[in-house]
């Protein structure tokens, strides 16, 4: 095959000819395990309960466990990486939103404290 036909073959079937070796599979497994641990660590920050009395920490952990159990049978390496990337992105967005809400709460509390102190002085 000449260079032009090789390139056209690759561009016509980009995913069909790619093979994922044992090293890549091992890397994916490590990344999935790292993600799972990160989710468990992150869930510690959700210590309040829902209306049924179950803590969000436990709900997040159960949900993560369920998702990882379902995903462990996935054999398509591209789908595995897609799931990992999607989960990381969702966790990052949740972390950002949580930080924003903590900031708003702290700002509100600071303003109330300042107002209370001013009222005591008067």
UniProtKB/TrEMBL annotation:
Residues 30-88 form the Complex 1 LYR protein domain. InterPro entries: Complex1_LYR_dom, Complex1_LYR_LYRM7. GO terms for biological process: mitochondrial respiratory chain complex III assembly. It comes from the Eukaryota. One of its GO terms (cellular component) is mitochondrion. Coiled coil: none annotated. Pfam families: Complex1_LYR (PF05347). This is Complex 1 LYR protein domain-containing protein. It comes from Paramecium pentaurelia. The lineage of its organism: Eukaryota, Sar, Alveolata, Ciliophora, Intramacronucleata.
